[in-house]
Amino acid sequence: MSKRLEGKTVLITGASSGIGRATAFEFARTAPNNLKLILTARRIDSLKQIVAEINDEVGNGVKVLPVQLDVSKPGEVRAFLGQLPAEFNEIDVLVNNAGLVKGVAKAPEITEEDMTVMFETNVTGLINMTQAILPIMLRRNNGEGAGDIINIGSIAGREPYVGGSIYCATKAAVRSFTESLRKELIAKRIRVISIDPGQVETEFSIVRFYGDKSKADAVYAGCEPLTPEDIAEAIVFAAGRRENVVIADTLIFPNHQA
Ligand code: NDP
């Protein structure tokens, strides 16, 4: 349990599965009294199911709001803030987690559609959310600000791989944006945090192979990927530190991953 997270309002993008879902549970378990969670993704039915599961597990000390939101649509992001119930307005922690990879292909074969969806989700979507939420954080403490922005990058943003040039480029862009933002906000009381996972077993691979589960499973053959909970623990740990402590930049991968 963490007293520091009590009373906070946490917004997680891509909360309908994988790391985002696990992060919602981890926040709820860590601060089961008086936490507010805003869970966003496109699949609203999955979000509603997660809300029911969290309520079953931790009771109603945690208020959980499911919101259908496509981060790649700037209009939706703007409208979403206006529609939030007043008690969820003061967002303290933004976890920019929504992201995907489409296909494994060398550069000349990557389709325009796949390239566009990866950039619009992983990069533009993350920036849309940050631009929408940051003003809320900046106006606290007479302009000194307060809050956490936690961006989920990837090992792929540091170590590009063959067949992943666009995905790797999107995650390198996330890394670069995050570092710039941290420098811009250094005089404020807003922490900007990068968490870069290695291989984690989630729906990520299924999305990568357009729903082909056998291809997705093959990615993990002969190795033991991390669980989404492993990443969720790191996210919540970073958010739960004393205000002056910034866990700025974390790379987390399974022991065997080269
Ligand atoms: P999942 O596929 O399980 O989760 C991805 C989440 O992103 C889903 O909740 C999905 O929800 C959401 N999402 C996708 N597109 C959009 C969109 N346009 N708007 C809003 N939400 C969207 O994968 P992971 O949990 O593994 O991925 C989470 C993050 O971790 C991603 O940023 C990924 O790049 C990163 N990562 C994952 C690794 C892995 O090995 N799994 C390794 C390194 C980084 P919905 O479809 O309902 O919108």
Q: What percent of the residues sit in helical stretches (DSSP H or I)? A: 40-55%
Q: Main sheet, how many strands, which sense, barrel?
A: 7 strands, parallel
Q: Roughly what is the average pLDDT, rounded to an integer? A: 96
Structural class: alpha/beta
Distance between the termini: 34 Å
Low-confidence stretches: none
Attached small molecules: NADPH dihydro-nicotinamide-adenine-dinucleotide phosphate
Query: How many distinct beta strands?
Result: 7
Main sheet: strand order = 3-2-1-4-5-6-7
What's the shape? globular
Query: Helical segment tally?
Result: 8
SSE string, helices as H and strands as E: EHEHEHEHEHEHHHE
Which percent band covers the strand fraction? 15-25%
